[in-house]
Write a structure and sequence with these properties.
- The protein is built from three helices and eight strands.
- It has 213 residues and is an alpha+beta fold.
Amino acid sequence: MMKPFARPFLTLIAALVTVACGVPESQSTRAASDAGSAPSGGGETLEHQFTIVTSLGTLKVELDAVNAPLSVANFEQYADDGFYDGSDGNGATVFHRVISGFMIQGGGISESGSDKRTRAPIAIESDNGLSNARGTLAMARTNDPNSATSQFFINHIDNAPLDYVSPANPGYAVFGEVIEGLEVLDAIAAVETDGRDRPLTPVVIESVTRTEP
C-alpha cells in the first residue's frame, strides 16, 4: 500500500531545518495571514470553501480551483464521499505525521493506523504559481510526482523549498489555504509525537463539509 510523503519528507527535513529561520514570512500572493481570518481575493464565492473539524479544533479552508483544478476536484470528491471523516463507513482519517516548524499531514490513514483504500492518483499541479506558504494546503505524494491520492498536508511555516523549480524538481502542488483557524494548525503542530512523527494522541478528522453560504 502506498504511503505518500514517507521518503520525500524525510529527505527534505534536514534541508528545511537549516533554512527555516531564514524563510520570509510570505512566499505567495495567496499566503494565509497569521490572523487566520481573512480569505484572499475577497470576491470569491463559498463554492470551494470547506470546514474541517478536528479533535483539536476547526479549520476553514478555501480551495483554488482556478490554479489547481485537478487537486481541488480530487479533494472535494474525497470530502463529499465521506472518506476523510469516516462517514463512508470505513473509519475517520487522522493527521498521522506532524512536524512542528514544518507541516502536518493527514487524510489517508485511519485512527487504527491502517491505510484507507484510495482512488487512482492524479497528475501533479505544482507548476501553478502557488507557493507552500504558511497555512497553505498541498498534495502529499511519494517520489513519483504523479502519485498523489487522498493525503494532503498543511504547511506550518513558509516552506519555499517545497515549491516547483523544474520538471526535474517539481516540488509539491499547493491547492488551497487556511482562511480561519491558524491557531488550530499551531495546536496540532505542537502535539507530542513518537519517533515516526505520529501524534501520541490521535488528531482525528471528525468532519469535512462544504461551507454553507
